[in-house]
């Protein structure tokens, strides 16, 4: 088995904004017939999620209710670290017949939890063919 590694670079803004990376996943899936893609967000404040494509705006609004921004003993971005921990920094996506096995009308999204403009983020895709 040979693993293939690809790095996706995103310029993001946030906090609480979602950036779709489904097309990157689909391109990697086409390179193999059957297998798995491990999607990993490098860093401690980003997160990854699979949600219905028509729920993105609602999800972004709901992130504000998930954890409050203020009131933490850790100054600055404690909420960003906690959101990342609760939501998760990696996904495993199965590939069958050259396509990712995702629910219908769902997408894969990176969540920027930091209050930054034009932040470069790296998402690592490790593809393993069966």
CATH superfamily: YjbQ-like
Q: Roughly how many Å apart are the termini?
A: 7 Å
Number of helices: 3
* Sheet with most strands: strand arrangement: 1-8-3-5-6
Helix content: 10-25%
Provide the number of structural domains.
Answer: 1
CATH topology: Jelly Rolls
CATH class membership: Mainly Beta
Largest sheet: 5 strands, antiparallel
Strand residue content: 35-45%
Poorly predicted tracts of residues: none
C-alpha-based Rg, rounded: 15 Å
Overall average pLDDT: 92
Report the CATH architecture.
Answer: Sandwich
Structural class: alpha+beta
Q: Got a strand count?
A: 8
Q: From N to C, what is the helix and strand string?
A: EEHEEHHEEEE
Shape: elongated
Describe this structure in words.
With 130 residues, the chain is an alpha+beta fold. It has one domain: YjbQ-like (Jelly Rolls). Helices cover 23% and strands 45% of the residues. The chain has 3 helices and 8 strands, in the order ββαββααββββ. It has helices at residues 22-30, 56-66, 78-87, and strands at 3-13, 17-20, 35-41, 46-52, 90-96, 99-100, 106-112, 117-129. It has a 5-stranded antiparallel sheet with strand order 1-8-3-5-6, with helices on one face. Strands 2-7-4 form a 3-stranded antiparallel sheet. A hairpin with a 2-residue loop joins β5 and β6. The chain is elongated. The termini are close together. The mean pLDDT is 92.
